[in-house]
Give the backbone structure.
Amino acid sequence: MGLDGDKWASLGVVTIQEAAEGHVVEVIQDAYACARHAKRITLMPKDLLLAQRIRCERSRPWNSGPTAVDAALERRIREGQRV
């Protein structure tokens, strides 16, 4: 690879890390907005799920449909149970 290739590789890793951190920050901000809307201070897993759903993101993009765990979580959220 050489020195020039190593430099480009390290810049690529830094760029990917910055993009990933920025994405995570945005999702957590959206999740906190969901928690505030529910008149809560504490962030809960269901807030993260809702933020991802609102953003049209999937945690498993290679999967064509929801899993049994997804269905159970959605049912519990609908019924107002703790997740």
